[in-house]
Amino acid sequence: MGDIVNKPGRLRPAPENFLSEEQVKAVAAGRRDFLRKSFLAAGAAIAAPLAARASEGDPAILTLPEWSTSLGQPVATRPYGMPSKYESQLLRRESPGLARVGGASVSFCPLQGLFGIITPSGLHFERHHQGWHDIDPSRHRLMINGSDDSLLKKPKVYTMDELMRLPSVSRIHFIECGANTGLEWGNVAVPTVQYTHGMLSCSEFTGVPLKLLLEDCGVDYKKARYVLAEGADGSSMTRTIPMEMVESGEVFVAYGMNGEMLRPENGYPLRLVVPGVQGVSWVKWLRRIEVGDQPYATKDEAVHYIDLQPNGLHRQYTSIQEAKSVITTPSGGQTLLDKGFYNVSGVAWSGRGKIKQVDVSFDGGINWQTARIEGPVQNKALTRFNIAWVWDGKPAILQSRAIDETGFVQPTYGQLRKVRGTKSIYHNNAIQSWKVVESGEITNVQVL
Amino acid sequence: MSRFSKSILVLALVGASTATFAFDSFKGVGRPATSAEVKAWDIDVRPDFKGLPKGSGNVERGNELFEEKCASCHGSFGESNEVFTPLAGGTTADDIKTGRVKGLSSGELPQRTTFTKVSTISTVFDYIQRAMPWTAPKSLKPDEVYAILAYLLNLQEIVPGDFTLSDKNIGDVQKLLPNRNGMTTDHGMWPGASAKKGGIGNGGKPDTDNKACMKNCKPEVLIGSTLPEYARTAHGELAEQYRSFGPVRGTRTLGPEAAKKAAEATTMELATKSGCMACHGMKSKIVGPGYNEVMTRYAGQPDAEGKLVAKVKAGGAGAWGSIPMPPNGHLADEDIKTLVKWILSGAK
């Protein structure tokens, strides 16, 4: 750990506070003279004020800051509020080399810095196939029709005005891309939780159950056992959804997200919410729903989002996101400040329902302890867990393991690869491991 | 593909009075779609070819169209890896016989192309019709889609060079698709009814079975893979992808050179945010002098920094001409100092 980083507020004598990484290494290697030399060189100027600090107290306390001694900004200075300027490092980011063009790419959500279960709308991950548009809601329409006339009595068209008059529901659900953690099927490939797990977000969505709309059009549930959802963008993305899920009332057409309208990148003004199912089915910029009597084998269910198995067959229509969890703090690409107490925190989720339990291991999965879950636990939503840890400065491997209400236990890499090999791309829900070394640096490793 | 018809409407209205579901129950909300509207949007083509428009096109015409509309991104032979994974290649005459692409299980396939995966020809027709060319989706007429698809099938050696693809013979082509037998739905990840009940899959049965062991669960920890060094730095400076405070810090992954670059980038942001860039460029004059001109003029003058900080703060004219720089008193002294230092050290 050393002092590669600045730890404000500590009252400490001089030399330790300005050691470079090389100096720390030199000290560790026993070259004390190096330390003395550097202290003599750099010390003269800096040591004095630091020593003074140590004796009198913290200048952040002793010298009143300008925010305590001046007038602040008036209301509505920023009519649409923005995060603090000190939060500029937590951003959606692309993974270099993953996609060749930005319009058919992914930006990952910075899970490493988020709290609780709700993803700030501006940080919600993005996946577009043909770029995003900011659609004029007054020109947006939702059409509902049948693959033939016998499945639905009356094809209808709804405007946004009309959809927003209908009975609405508001529910918190996670959305995870089927390819989340897909870069890691074969081996460790990316450094931080943003890139391993960041095609994951969770929001409160508001909209109209699809069931109401289909019934308003006179659907014949006996014949119409599938639904095709279609987007209004260039790709006009299409996906097949089972009617069972629609009938249960859980699928809805959403316009609201976290109290405001959807963001354009997330489907403004209308998207489908298909709880527990991979993100590709949550069709954005939703323009049409067709009810049918067989699945559609669309491009994203016959060329992509099919899971290659070791026997050369592709699994088709894999949709459910099985139970999964990840520790977000501390996690890969971070360095612990010091030995001592830490609150280890992460998220767990399951496409099959509620999270029942999350266990955490600090020794690579030999022993486990049950973490504290932050309630209320929502159905098919992120669930935050926390557990106390005192780091003794020795190497450790942190893991989390989710168990959902069906009793399903998140698998290890060994277990997953045994059945599905390493080429599946999709649906990697293996237990994630973060290795901590003496310096406090945490890296991504895979424990079998 | 639905066509709204009057007879159905009548039936529907009759049905409404006895139906158990809430047909037409939201007064004043929604209206019937016209048949022209449904036709305009309902363009999907199913594996059983429901929705397939009538038409035809041959390989030669397809070659021309592909060259004109597709090759810039996908390569003349659908082989390009520049913009997306290749469309064509990777299958053999034997695959066409068996309907299973052997390379998928043997590991001989360097990369999966569209035709090594797809098991339904309707999928490719549907997708090209709705989404390609990427920058002008839905611009192709049905005959053009047939022609382009004929060309792609010829590239794949599924049809001969003099072939004409049409709505009449597309079903025969389906029987030759190299990976037509390559899909399975025997899994537990379909959220609807199981195959036994007329749906898909095994009814949700998972294929892994971990146990929630708590103590002494295994004799040792087997590490299967660790982060390769190139991957540690390929994602930029991780220290700058986390807060500057909190229980941990982002690990510094790049050297001081890269850190300097990053610092320059943030000073540039500060300059932009502070409005300096409206009047100053790097090299030459906009309203005020280029920053590199300023650096050159004051090179070797030890008191330059202090003087310029004062000048930027107070504004004024005369050093470079008669146009004055407005005062910048709204900025924190610290920020002005950072900016002047940046200018004098060769702002980029």
How far apart lie the N and C ends of chain A?
28 Å
**Spatial order of the strands forming the largest sheet of chain B:** 2-3
Overall number of domains of chain B: 4
Whole-angstrom Rg of chain A? 26 Å
Report on the structure:
The complex is a heterodimer of chains A (448) and B (348). Chain A has 10 helices and 24 strands. By secondary structure, chain A is α+β, with helices and mostly antiparallel strands. Chain A folds into 3 domains: 2-68, no CATH class; 103-315, Sulfite Oxidase, Chain A, domain 2 (Alpha-Beta Complex); 324-445, Immunoglobulin-like, CATH 2.60.40.650. Chain A has a 5-stranded mixed beta sheet. In chain A, strands 5, 6, 9, 10 and 11 form a 5-stranded antiparallel beta sheet that branches. Chain A has a 5-stranded antiparallel beta sheet with strand order 19-18-22-23-24, with no helix packed on it. The relative contact order of chain A is 0.12. With 348 residues, chain B is mostly helical. Chain B has 4 domains: 3-41, no CATH class; 56-174, Orthogonal Bundle (Cytochrome Bc1 Complex, Chain D, domain 2), CATH 1.10.760.10; 221-242 and 250-255, no CATH class; 265-316 and 325-348, Cytochrome Bc1 Complex, Chain D, domain 2 (Orthogonal Bundle), CATH 1.10.760. Helix content of chain B is 38%, strand content 5%. Chain B has a two-stranded antiparallel sheet with strand order 2-3. In chain B, α8 (121-131) packs across α9 and α12 packs across α15 (333-344). Chains A and B meet through β3, β4, α7, β7 and β8 of A and α1, β1, α2, α6 and α8 of B. β16 of chain A pairs antiparallel with β6 of chain B.
